[in-house]
Design goal:
Length: about 525
């Protein structure tokens, strides 16, 4: 029976990961096409200004959404009981999460709306961000509602609704901006305003879809559960008090942790243009470099992390449930498998970005600088993808203070490089700081989880790296021999074909060497 439940839970985990990965890839592909469109409409300077509003969005989302979403997910996942009892308790958790989120998002909408100018001038150090902040704040209530409902579905390991939500949000956002910009011939500042309006349209559409699916889910459950009767009032009130206290404690702990991290991320984002100005760049050049780095190169590096992000979202409630059941063998299995596949994905994309990063920058974004940054950031991949998964696992084990401590150390390293080294050595110091920061975080996480991991240096490290070294080197030489034009669709298709060959060859070798096994996914 235990093995059956283990397989059932693992299948839901894999199914959810696949759904979220497909949705993640779909949204990121749409997002890349959209970024190419935005860079043409806005130019790199305005793209940098547009990117600067996201630190404010990130801090606000952390307060009204991120911590509450994770708290709902963990509480719903660890809620064990009969179907009717579980459903009632889950609904109560969600109801109170929505209530708290609505109050916080409403307050933050008013604050950002009325204090946009001082926020832009004093916090973002860029007064021209103010009109975009005044528009951006109206998405907070929609975003908070979606976050809570998604947290509920993640906790039940039902990833279909959040996956579809991602696609709806991205499609509506991109479509609305493209229609507005093309129909009104908007460029420059008008185009930037429409880009922010598109964010609101996307969040509103995904929120309405989430609400509809939630209503549908509860309607079906009530229809199929006629015996679902309310408990005595005294028992119901005591249970409600317990749920509210658990939710508030967990949400407060997670929100505080995530808020400090979000503030540090925001400080990092704001300091990049400021540090580059101290290095000697003009204001326009500093914003252009920031726009290329944060709006083009980093999202490109993060593109494959759709897989590890999806897995980390699904594994948190799975770990929480396994811990509630005191099933340590499940925890060991999840951690070892997730660590192994995060590394394999990281190695693969480090190889691809090292070999063809510069070509991707020129062919996709018509920017040599973007290609250089993609090439330089490629070393992040194994550490970044592994850290994403392990952070979620440690949170699932209830050690949120530890992930907070580790993340603060990592971000402090980056901020140190920004304040003291970027003014002396330029953007190269920031790139080096990013790598050192990510390695530091990953080492701390691996050290904490070392007792849960069954590590094999041969299959986890040596074989995949040697395989990629040989395969990548061979295909790169072949690519350089071919007479490839510098522009057009043909070189892009050829480049994609070579990347596909690397992926297929890599999978074939790992499969033959038994580094990957079908049983891991069944």
């Amino acid at each position: 029976m235990g093995n059956f439940n283990m397989k059932k839970l693992q299948n839901k985990l894999i199914e959810g990961t696949l759904l979220l990965t497909i949705a993640g890839f779909a949204t990121r592909i749409i997002g890349f096409i959209y970024r190419i469109f935005l860079s043409d409409i806005l130019g790199v300077k305005l793209l940098g200004i547009y990117q600067l509003v996201f630190p404010v969005y990130g801090i606000c989302f952390t307060i009204y959404g991120a911590g509450i979403q994770t708290a709902i997910s963990q509480l719903v996942a660890s809620n064990i009981g009969s179907s009717a009892q579980k459903q009632k308790k889950d609904l109560m958790i969600l109801k109170w999460g929505l209530f708290i989120s609505a109050i916080l998002s409403g307050i933050l909408t008013c604050l950002v709306r009325f204090f946009a100018e001082p926020i832009a001038s004093c916090l973002l150090l860029e007064p021209s961000c103010a009109p975009y902040l005044e528009i951006l704040c109206f998405l907070f209530p929609f975003c908070g509602t979606s976050a809570c409902i998604n947290g509920y579905f993640y906790g039940r390991k039902e990833a279909k609704v959040p996956a579809v939500t991602q696609i709806i949000e991205q499609l509506v956002r991109v479509t609305s901006v493209v229609i507005l910009c093309l129909s009104l011939s908007a460029t420059g500042e008008a185009g930037c305003r429409f880009a922010v309006i598109g964010l609101i349209c996307g969040e509103a559409a995904s929120c309405f879809y989430n609400c509809f699916k939630l209503y549908q889910a509860f309607h079906i459950h009530l229809k199929n559960s006629p015996s679902f009767l309310p408990k005595k009032r005294k028992t119901a009130v005591s249970q409600q008090d317990k749920i509210v206290s658990q939710l508030l404690f967990l949400a407060f702990t997670l929100t505080t942790t995530k808020l400090v991290i979000s503030i540090l991320h925001s400080v990092e984002s704001i300091f990049i243009p400021a540090a580059l100005k101290k290095f000697g760049c003009s204001a326009q050049d500093a914003l252009s470099i920031y726009g290329i780095l944060s709006g083009i190169a980093m999202p490109f590096i993060l593109f494959p992390s759709s897989i590890t992000n999806s897995f980390s979202v699904m594994i948190l409630p799975a770990i929480a449930q396994a811990q509630a059941e005191q099933a340590e063998h499940k925890i060991r299995s999840y951690i070892t498998l997730s660590g192994k596949y995060s590394l394999f994905i990281g190695y693969l994309f480090t190889c691809i970005f090292l070999l063809f990063g510069k070509e991707f920058g020129i062919l996709l974004f018509h920017s040599e600088d973007a290609g250089i940054y993609i090439y330089a950031l490629s070393w992040l991949c194994p550490f970044l993808y592994l850290s994403t998964t392990f952070t979620s696992i440690i949170n699932g084990l209830g050690k949120t203070q530890l992930t907070f401590f580790i993340t603060v150390i990592g971000l402090s390293v980056k901020i140190y490089f920004l304040i003291f080294l970027v003014p002396l050595y330029g953007i190269q110091a920031y790139l080096a700081g990013s790598l050192i920061s990510q390695i530091t975080m990953t080492l701390f996480e691996v050290f904490y989880l070392r007792h849960y991991i069954s590590f094999s240096a041969g299959s986890f490290l040596l074989l995949p790296c040697f395989c990629l070294l040989f395969l990548g080197g061979l295909l790169k030489k072949l690519y350089l021999i071919l007479p490839v034009p510098k522009t057009g669709i043909f070189p892009l298709l050829l480049l994609s074909f070579f990347c596909l060959l690397i992926c297929l060859g890599y999978l074939f070798v790992l499969g033959r060497a038994k580094c990957i096994d079908r049983k891991d996914f069944l």
